[in-house]
Amino acid sequence: MNVTVIGTGYVGLVQGVILSEFGHKVICMDIDKTKIENLNKGILPIYEPGLKDILEHNVNEKRLSFTTDIKEAILNSEVIFIAVGTPPSDDGSADLKYVLECAKNIGENLNGYKVIVNKSTVPVGTGDLVEKEIEKVLGKRGVKFKFDVVSNPEFLREGKAVNDCLRPDRVVIGSESTKALDIMKKIYDVLYINKTPFVFTNRRTSEMIKYASNAFLAVKISYINEMALLAEKVGANTQEIAQAMGMDGRISPKFLHCGPGYGGSCFPKDTKAIVEIGKEYGENMSVIAAAISANEKQKQKMVEKIIKEMSGVSRKTIGILGLTFKPETDDMRDAPSIDIIRGLVINGAKIKAYCPKGIEEAKWRLKDLNRDIEFCENEVECSKGSDAIVLMTEWNQFRGMDLEELKNRMKDNFYFDLRNVHSKDDNVRKIFRYFPVGQC
Ligand code: NAD
Ligand code: UGA
Prior knowledge:
This protein has 19 helices and 14 strands.
């Protein structure tokens, strides 16, 4: 089928590439000229393992192309995916301006029946808004074309996005139109044949499934993080607690890793958005609201712990390993490192920071602190003259580091392992004054 994906970010680009891998002829469209120019030169705007090879293969096979021309993108396709950002507004609700701009552009260029698929994470009822916007513009043009708006939320994880799109746990499709559903089945034919579970439901339920899923995972993380705070005080081990909890099939061991708090472009924004949706409909989403405040508390607790154990951080140098909100991505949006670094700097610390992929984005996100942060080339440089190391993000390369070598270059020997990467290694406690999360 001929498919257009509007938005070439973490979701749109991966989705476009994978749909072309499924044999569809895909146009990826974005308003960002630099992104498209670079994509046409084979330069990817994001770091996502495994994406480049599949992209190049499908460009060579002439199944995948990139454009800024919305008209070309719409005229030639039967199915149009909207995969643009839905960032938080000042009050936390999802800002739909990019989605509605796409709807307007689609209305301006529609030339026959098409299925409009919303992949962006959007509040319940956005499908109706998109439909109305397209109809309004068609009305202004004085033309009538049939179209269907389908909800098809995305569940990929950054860093694992390629695999998640090739082998999703489930595909959710929300539509009341049998014609649109038949087309969506063709779009995902490869997955359908591979017996991937499909959920066919109405559009509003589909929109809500996305928020319900993300918020639940955020609650799970905040839950274990709060257990971790208590475990440290009572002398219990949260990793073992989580392991034993997870043996109960009803609980599952996934998303029970305590740490510095969840971050990223989705959990923080989507939890706040669903709380706002609740307010709009007069429902207090108290469990999710508690998860949000527990997450803020968690980041603050990390700062407090470092300050307490080091008897203050004023004029001390802290080496931060890992800046992105998780490994295998260059995405710094809402990374816990940002708040934790700010907390340490406010208390007088100097920061040395190293991250395999996050430094470029961290430089502009933390530019107001540029006098207090030095960005380093590697973990060894980061440790030189540092009083403490804070392992912020569990990049694989930090697992096998030569801890003796790090210690020998440091001024003092504090090690705050906010991801419990080395907590099972007895040696680490001999080398450092070692502080994991949720255990002693
Ligand atoms: P992103 O910010 O990485 O990318 C959005 C892209 O859309 C940008 O390249 C931007 O230039 C482009 N864009 C904006 N307005 C446009 C327009 N009118 N026409 C064409 N292009 C336009 O965003 P993202 O992380 O890919 O997220 C997109 C959506 O998917 C969000 O709703 C997000 O919540 C959801 N989501 C994200 C993830 C993730 O892991 N990042 C996973 C699942 C769902
Ligand atoms: C998350 C969801 O996992 C995806 O299913 C969803 O599609 C996506 O949000 C989205 O809607 O954008 P992502 O943000 O890429 O994916 O990353 P996760 O692996 O879920 O991690 C999110 C945050 O939670 C990270 O900061 C991570 O370190 C933290 N986390 C995760 C924990 O602290 N503990 C855990 O046990 C798991």
